[in-house]
Amino acid sequence: MRPEVFAGLIDGGWAGLDFADFRPGVTIHRLWRDPGSGAEWALLKYRAGASVPRHRHPGPETILVLEGAQSDEHGTYETGAMVCNAPGSVHSVRSEGGCVVLIHWALPVEILEEPRATT
């Protein structure tokens, strides 16, 4: 079986890819997914001010910030930062100025809090 190769992602090669809606203000381009386990590699693109609500990682999560900065309760991670979240970790994610990240989930995440609707 041949590997799937995604050239130039670190150098902005993601810019020409098609992204689909994922969460409000966040789009996704799925690179690879194991339908049996739910493990996945994807690119997430956050608009300025976008966020993902509080969620739990049943398995490990790895994030590489390709452009911009992403923050959670533990800090802000700028271009080039790699973040490894352990199984069982819980956080919410936001990007004040927008960002693009390469992300790997070993197992699908569990959303703990949906954002409240504003009226």
Automatic annotation (TrEMBL):
Keyword Ligase listed? The answer is no
Give a Pfam family name: Cupin_7
For this UniProt record, the keywords arranged alphabetically read as follows:
Plasmid
Ranges for domain ChrR-like cupin: 17-103
- InterPro entries, A to Z: ChrR-like_cupin_dom (IPR025979), RmlC-like_jellyroll (IPR014710), RmlC_Cupin_sf (IPR011051)
Q: Which SUPFAM superfamilies match?
A: RmlC-like cupins
> Which residue spans traverse the membrane?
none
For the keyword Transport, the answer is no
Protein's recorded name: Anti-ECFsigma factor, ChrR
Species source reads: Salipiger profundus
